[in-house]
Each structure stands twice: as structure tokens, then as C-alpha cells.
Prior knowledge:
This protein has helices at 15-36, 41-69, 74-96, 104-133. It is mainly alpha-helical. It has one domain (14-133): Hemerythrin-like (Four Helix Bundle (Hemerythrin (Met), subunit A), Up-down Bundle), CATH 1.20.120. Helix 1 (15-36) runs antiparallel to helix 2 (41-69) and helix 2 runs antiparallel to helix 3 (74-96).
Amino acid sequence: xxxxDWNESLEIGFRPIDADHKRLVALLNExxxxxxxxxxxxxxxxxxxRIARHTATHFRHEEALMAESGYPDAPNHCLAHQExxxxxxxxxxxxxxxxSVFSQELVxxxxxxxxxxxxxxxxxxxxxxxxxxx
Length: 134
Ligand SMILES: [Fe+2]
């Protein structure tokens, strides 16, 4: 079973962002699959690195849209992005130091963060962008 089933409640109605989110969900499902099937640490590690890279690219994408459109809640939204990126950077550093950081708890944390962020902050951004293009 996938960790996250993509469904309409995860669509914010702005296609380029929805496409980024779908890809993030697929990458998280991949990491989850590697963990539950007992894959090698190197596979798990590279899956997590893909998530970190895609997250950074995606956040810059959203932040550029917020800047271009004059989105009023941009400071809060960018702060939420920064906090997650800092947590991911800490995890990557601990990994490099040889710590075992992967667990169902970590995957659940990422899942809950993503779903919560998409359904609140990103959905609000989607409504704003839709209003601008109306
Ligand atoms: Fe966001």
C-alpha cells in the first residue's frame, strides 16, 4: 500500500504546483516502499536525497510565484518552508555522520507535514493565484 494516495483534496488547482506535489508524493511513497521492503541503506539514502532536492526546487518554485504575485502571506509561508528544509538538512548531516535516521516515524512525519502544508498554506496560495488570474 502506498504511504499517500493522491486524491483531489491534495489539489490546489494550480497545475504546476500540483505537478510538483504529485512528484513529491511519488518520491515519499518510494522511500516508504524501500523502508518496508527492507531495501539497502544506500537505496533508502538516495531516495531521501531525491526528496530533499525536489523539496528545495519545489519551494523555490512556490516562493517565486509568491514574489511575482505579491502574495501577502509570503513571509509566513516561506518560514514554514525554511523550517522543513532545516530539519531535512539536519537529517542529511546526521546521515553523513553515520547515524541511522530512517524510521516509519520519519516517513510519517514527512507525510503529515506535506499533507498539512498542502491542505492549508498551499491551498490558500492556490486560491489567491486563482483570484489573480480570474
Ligand atoms: Fe508551500
